[in-house]
Amino acid sequence: MLEKLRNVFIGNPLKSAGESDEEHLLSKSQALAMLSSDALSSIAYGPEQVILVLTTISAAAIWWSLPIGLLVLVLLASLTISYQQVIHAYPKGGGAYMVSTENLSPSMGLIAGGSLLVDYMLTVAVSVSSGADAITSAFPAIKEFNLEISIVLVLILMFMNLRGLRESATSLMIPVYLFIVSILFLIGYGGIQIATGHLAYSATAHVGKVVPGVSLILLLRAFTSGSASLTGVEAISNAVPFFKKPKEKNAAGTLAIMSIILGVMFAGITFLNYWLGIMPSAHVTVLAQIAQKIFGDSAIGNALFYIFQLSTALILAVAANTGFSAFPMLSFNMAKNKYMPHLFMEKGARLGYSNGIITLAVGAIVLLCIFNGSTERLIPLYTIGVFIPFALSQTGMVIHWKRKFGKGYLKHSVANILGAIICYLIILILLIFRIGEIWPFFPIIVVLMILFYSIKSHYNNVAMQLRLTDDVKNIHYDGNTVLILVGNITQASIRAINYAKSIGQTVVAMHVSTLETREKDLEIEQEFKTYFPDVTFVNIESNYRDIVKPTMSFVQKMNQEAKKNNHTMTVIIPKFIPKHSWQNVLHNQMSLRLRARLRWYEDIIIATYSYHLKK
């Protein structure tokens, strides 16, 4: 039944042979939809974040958004060039994690990887909460259900990604390309109106006007806020293996296309906001106000406005998908290096890394619940989470070029050096001015680092203990002592005892009785001796109605006797299997409790004899 439900929601399993087929990998157009939605959707809130900081001083300070926007574009260009270099240098994916690990140190790699893992969860949380805000802005009556809507959006995206890469990418192409067309149309239409004199210049101040109160600190804060528009730029470098061949060329090309589109949209919206003198509002976003001004209030204008708002809501809702593609791939690379559980390397029925997808969804839902679905409270954590790996990857690439080209490395690393300086500056500004909002990120990273090293230590210890050495010898046993745990004399227990007699030289049946069931227990003992007069039956009384503890005590004594006789020790637990899985909840599951305790004893073999019921 569970398998049927899985096939309904996720789809029928795909053969492993199709794993490497081109049909299951992404083209550039599909990858742009799947891996760029996070970065592109930031246009909905990135430019507004700059205005929010500047207008704390004066509306006249809005003109500073133009040079700040230019600096953001410089950083975008630097990051694009750098991550294109990362794609060619590390075609197996891993992005900032691999670059930092190989060029800085494993610890720096773990900081980058841990930051990105958390940031991908924040990507999902921020995107769906922003999408929920857009939905509830259109329908105020459901505003109180923001959190519930966000959680539903996460679950929808999770199931889409569990169905597979192509299915997810194809589903996302419509909202992503609708948003791109909508924004570019808005910018183009606005530009035409400005050129023809139909859109009046309404800026609050001319460029270059001195505005009292504007300081370097304010401008730096505005720049860090605007840099939120660059989150998600690194996702393509983490997902190179998902591309069709030639993988590196297609991935680098997709990154270039995404960056050009993002740069044009950011520059266009920033300029239109300055030209129109738009001020932030608690009820209507800056982007929505720009659309209202440009489209007007005619019937066609209103229709265009609602289409635009729909495209914005959709892109914010699906922007989370960047995390669903990048998180599993990063988890795979970290698991391959033994810093995360190996289950993150396993592919699911649809050839996706299902465990990574599910873990991301659960983590995002937890964050949404902790912060009550508040986009405003999530964004500062989101920003610090992405700029730490940005800075480390840029630094790592400088080291990479130095190792590769020696003294001539500088001409190859100009973009990396510039990007690193800007990223470290952003981190410093966040630490100085927004520490009260970003501090939870650091204890989370510390906990993750401890977990990473603990997991690595565990795998190393396992490998060391299982490794074959020169002094390994074959061990000879003189026989097998078998203990069968008997609750009642049934078809299951009789067959289990017959099996025990076939594999053991010494066979003992054990039953635990209590004061309340003493008469029945005597009947069980007599019935047992009728069927198996040649098998030793031991009836142990439990004065505290506990079955597990006396069983463990007797097993230990039997194991000691087995060792004296140079025997192996096997414990057989009879268990009947109901026809329908739901019927398991009707039974006490004593066999599971016994197995859970027995597995901690050394040198004991635990066997379950399953008897399948027909109805």
From TrEMBL:
Keyword Transmembrane helix found: yes
Highest taxon of the lineage: Bacteria
Membrane topology: Multi-pass membrane protein
One Gene Ontology CC term in the entry: membrane
Pfam families from the UniProt entry: AA_permease_2 (PF13520)
Chief localization: membrane
UniProt KW DNA repair keyword: no
Keywords: Membrane, Transmembrane, Transmembrane helix
Annotated TM spans: 62-83, 104-125, 145-162, 174-196, 216-243, 255-276, 303-330, 351-373, 379-401, 413-432, 438-455
A Gene Ontology molecular function term of the record: transmembrane transporter activity
InterPro entries: AA/rel_permease1 (IPR002293), APC_K+_Transporter (IPR053153)
Cellular compartments annotated: Membrane
PANTHER family, A to Z: POTASSIUM TRANSPORTER KIMA
Name of the protein in question: APC family amino acid-polyamine-organocation transporter
Lineage of producing organism: Bacteria, Bacillati, Bacillota, Bacilli, Lactobacillales
